[in-house]
Amino acid sequence: MKITGTMINYYFVCHRKLWLHVHRLSFEEQHENVQLGKLLDQSSYTREKKQIMIDETVNIDFLQDWKIIHEVKKSKSMEESAEWQVRYYISYLRKKGIAVERGILDYPLLKKRKEILLNDEEEEKLKDILLDIEYISNQENAPATINKKWCKKCAFYEYCFS
Amino acid sequence: MYIILIYDISTEGSGARISRNVFKICKKYLTHVQKSVFEGELTQSKLKKLQIELSEFIRDDMDSVVVFNSTQRRWLKKDFWGMNEEEKTSTFF
Amino acid sequence: MVESYYLFSSGELKRKDNVVRMTAPDGRFKDIKIEMTRDIYLFGETSMNTKCLNFLSTNKIPMHLFNYYGYYTGSFYPKEVNISGNLLIRQVEHYTDETRRLIIAKEIIYSASYNIYRNVRYYHQRGKDLETQLDQLKALRKLISRAKNIQELMGIEGNIHQVYYTCWAIVVNQKIDFQKRVKRPPDNMINTLISFLNSLVYTSCLSEIYVSQLNPTISYLHSASDRRFSLSLDIAEIFKPILVDRLIFSLLNKKVISESDFDTESNFCYLKKNAQQKILKAYNERLEKTIKHRELKRHISYRHLMRLECYKLIKHLMNDKNYEGFKIWW
């Protein structure tokens, strides 16, 4: 199974969202926040090389000198998931033999950035996460709704609660 | 939200070409109502998209685009002096 | 936020720069802003080329076609994006397995008949004596859960409509001659109105199905061979009482529409062009009307309720949550 950065991200946000995404039930297309985020990606690094797709699996916003991975986010609301998304990219590229030093989370709207590193312990945890994602994806049915405060802003909200 | 967009493109340099492009881009999103005036309903993301598309052409030192926005169309009172051009923004034809 | 365009004028539909332009023979034109368009309705005699159709397809804009008399003739349904193979398999499974198909079909009739019941009750509470019909409807609705197959269910549905239609002459303040539904061609004012509005609801549902991930050709109440996009018939069934019937009652009772809006020589089969426009305006306004959704705690338009109906159906098919059809809750 090909695991994408989005899947890592969704894993930390909501297992149900992850399952639906894996089963190609997506609602991002019509959702305002998601569309705004997408536009932010496109407009953030105009001059630099951006959005590289590797193995049709990981889609990196911007790779600086093949050493620093940049991931653009709109807000800090889901920071943990974004951090793990970047760690996954670091690990993925290192396995390809690319000597990635670190990752950076960019918040152009907040004019902030955060450095992300990947240590051995985190590398181990990542392995567990990947296994867990496989496990959730292979479930026959979608996991239950989680009813968190961020549900309301999620592209899947109307699907989950209608 | 309901948008009224007006622009002024300087004729200097490649002004004519820029003006043509700005016009074409605006028409994808809004209704053309007067010479360089557009209006219509837009979402946040579409407005952003429009802005990004226009920024490729607008020269910051000589062209200007002004965007008025009203959260709701009905909060914007509209009168016609002279010709009534209500049908321009209608989706019936 | 996006809009539907209703083009009555005849002429040429063409891609012009980055928009689609409808040009009338007299040179007047209408530009359709493709970024903000949901769908396009064509009522006039229009010519167009593949360049225009390809452009609409790229922008995911369906187009619904009507002939001169306002009869729906078909839709241009752009290539679907975002297909879920998994969902399609489940859609088919629920169709081929008679037991599972019946569960969905019953819920559709159960919801549609509830909305019918509410229409009758509404007018009963406003002074029309419809006591008998209300009792009959209640009794008939009880039979739905016991139906053993689709044919039996369709029979019950037929009976419900028979009772329902006896209310119409009482509800409508204009003198109408209406006892039963006659289609192709309709034979009186009411049948003509129903046919016209039914086709509108069908197309609105289709446009909503298009943005959902459902395949429009697999249906549950209607047989998949009824029409090309039979799922749209299924979903429309639930919304017809509120979008078609209630609108007809109000148009007639407010005298917005009367005999003079029909072509009398054709035995009231045809709505005049300006009457079609009047109805469409009223229909479009009705679709934009919003109500507060209790679970979502948001204002939702009648049109958006159709989208939610697709979501609920998907959840049922994905074995996530049992389908409960839309029933008027206010």
Structural class of chain A: alpha+beta
Indicate how many domains the architecture of chain B comprises.
Answer: 1
CATH topology category name of chain B = Alpha-Beta Plaits
Cα radius of gyration of chain A in angstroms: 16 Å
Largest sheet of chain B: 4 strands, antiparallel
Q: What is the radius of gyration of chain B computed over CA atoms, rounded to a whole number of angstroms? A: 14 Å
* Straight-line distance between termini of chain B: 23 Å
Helicity level of chain B: 25-40%
* Structural class determined from secondary elements of chain B: alpha+beta
Describe the strand arrangement of the main beta sheet of chain A, using strand numbers.
Answer: 3-4-5-6
Average pLDDT of chain B, rounded to a whole number, is 93
In the CATH scheme, the class of chain B would be Alpha Beta
DSSP strand count of chain B? 4
Beta-strand proportion of chain B = 15-25%
Largest interface (C-beta under 8 Å):
B-C, 18 and 23 residues
The first-level CATH class name of chain A: Alpha Beta
Which series of helices and strands of chain A comes N to C?
HHHEEEEHEEHH
Looking at the structure, the CATH topology of chain A is Lambda Exonuclease, Chain A
GO molecular function (chain C): DNA binding; DNA endonuclease activity; hydrolase activity; metal ion binding
Enzyme class (chain C): hydrolase
Binding site for Mn(2+) (chain C): 157, 222, 237
Subunit structure (chain C): Homodimer, forms a heterotetramer with a Cas2 homodimer.
Report on the architecture of this protein.
Chain C: GO terms for molecular function: DNA binding; DNA endonuclease activity; hydrolase activity; metal ion binding. The complex is a heterotrimer of chains A (162), B (93) and C (330). Chain A has one domain: Lambda Exonuclease, Chain A, CATH 3.90.320. Helices cover 43% and strands 15% of the residues of chain A. Chain A has helices at residues 5-13, 15-22, 32-44, 79-95, 120-137, 157-161, and strands at 52-54, 58-60, 62-64, 68-72, 102-107, 112-116. Chain A is globular and about 45 Å long. The model of chain A has no long low-confidence stretch (mean pLDDT 88). Chain B is α+β, with helices and mostly antiparallel strands and 93 residues long. Chain B has a single domain (2-73), classed as Alpha-Beta Plaits, CATH 3.30.70.240. Chain B is built from two helices and four strands. In chain B, strands 2-3-1-4 form a four-stranded antiparallel beta sheet, with helices on one face. Chain B is globular, with a radius of gyration of 14 Å. The two termini of chain B are 23 Å apart. Chain C folds into two domains: 3-76, Ribosomal Protein L15, Chain: K, domain 2; 85-318, CRISPR-associated endonuclease Cas1, C-terminal domain (Four Helix Bundle (Hemerythrin (Met), subunit A), Up-down Bundle), CATH 1.20.120. In chain C, the strands form four sheets. Chain C has a four-stranded mixed beta sheet with strand order 1-5-7-8, with helices on one face. In chain C, helix 3 (98-125) packs parallel to helix 5 and helix 7 (230-253) runs antiparallel to helix 9 (302-317). Chain C is globular, with a radius of gyration of 20 Å. Chain C starts with a strand and ends in a 13-residue tail after the last helix. The chains are: A alpha+beta (162), B alpha+beta (93), C alpha/beta (330). Chains A and B meet through helix 3 of A and helix 2 of B.
